[in-house]
Write a structure and sequence with these properties.
Layout (H helix, E strand, L loop, with lengths): L4 H18 L2 E4 L3 E7 L2 E2 L11 E4 L5 E7 L3 E11 L5 E11 L5 H7 L3 H17 L11 H19 L3 E12 L1 H85 L4 H7 L9 E4 L2 E4 L7 E3 L10
Antiparallel strand pairs: 1-4, 2-3, 2-5, 6-7, 7-8, 9-10, 10-11
Helix pairs in contact: 3-4
């Protein structure tokens, strides 16, 4: 193949035309805005001059377009080393979520072209300050509170310095040095043993209390039984006393009725007669004749002897 100057010129011309055509337009996504630079100098002066999403032409070679994302963005910062309040080394990963408002875009890129470096510095300083106020053992426990403080601090500073809107700063992960991790593990093990002993002690205390309660219940039951028996005996004595009282009252009432019936003047005779026990008499008679009734149905008359006259 013969290479002639004409062919070289044509090839060069075609390549130049291709490069020129490629550099004469730009395409922006829906979440992007464009800032024009001509020979390195920002020429977009107003928000209304920002390039909007879609296709647009530009001057090749002389004009470049800076594409700026105005949607929610995220920046991650790994291996952030700092110290806690008790001088423990902590290695953290931080994530910041933010947006660049369209009306602040030109101000940011004109006055703070290094805004990403300033954003990173602000986030790291806020995180180190917040972590430095916490003891190592409380970082995990107070993570939400710590990051809330970091977010508020970063939001305030970044808004004043850059005009960027910070949504949230997160702490996805963090680690301590090996010595501290071993110390934490040892402390956790000791705490677990202590908790186990405390649990056993509490169980023993509960068992002791249960024994005391059972003994008190038995004593109370025995006391109630004794009280019930005493009450029963008391009631029996009261019933017996009432019985004797009722009998005495009945006898008194009967005596009064007898007195009313026979008259008080005959009461002595009645009382004497009332002493007879109801048995049949063993002998009958009087004077010189006495009948002995002690035989089995035999009646015998006994004549007393006449005493012999005394000798003269």
């Amino acid at each position: 193949m013969n290479i002639t100057p004409k062919k070289v010129l044509l090839s060069f011309t075609a390549a130049a035309a291709l490069v020129t055509a490629a550099g004469s337009f730009t395409i922006l996504d829906e979440t992007q805005r464009g800032v024009d630079y001509r020979l390195g100098k920002m020429v977009t002066q107003d928000v209304s001059e920002l390039r909007q999403p879609g296709f647009s032409l530009k001057t090749p070679f002389f004009t470049s377009v800076k594409k700026v994302d105005v949607s929610l963005q995220q920046r991650d910062y790994s291996d952030v080393e700092t110290y806690t309040k008790d001088n423990q080394v902590i290695n953290a990963k931080l994530s910041i979520f933010f947006t660049i408002p369209s009306d602040k875009l030109l101000h940011i890129y004109r006055n703070s072209p290094d805004w990403e470096q300033k954003l990173e510095t602000t986030v790291l300083d806020a995180a180190k300050s917040a972590l430095g106020r916490q003891e190592a053992q409380n970082v995990a426990l107070n993570r939400e509170e710590i990051m809330k403080s970091v977010t508020e601090d970063t939001r305030r500073q970044v808004s004043a310095l850059l005009g960027i809107q910070v949504q949230e700063v997160k702490l996805p992960n963090f680690t301590f040095d090996d010595a501290f991790e071993k110390a934490v593990a040892s402390a956790a093990n000791a705490k677990a043993v202590l908790n186990q002993k405390q649990t056993e002690l509490e169980q023993q205390r509960v068992e002791k209390d249960k024994t005391i309660v059972d003994a008190e219940a038995k004593n109370e039951s025995a006391k109630l039984a004794a009280d019930a028996e005493a009450y029963r005996l008391q009631k029996e004595k009261e019933a017996e006393a009432k019985g004797r009282l009722a009998l005495a009252e009945a006898e008194a009432k009967g005596f009064n009725q007898i007195v009313a019936a026979i008259g008080r003047e005959n009461i002595d005779t009645y009382l004497k007669t009332n002493k007879w026990d109801g048995a049949e008499p063993q002998v009958l008679g009087g004077g010189s004749t006495i009948v002995d009734l002690r035989g089995a149905g035999t009646t015998a008359a006994v004549t007393p002897r006449t005493p012999a006259p005394a000798p003269k």
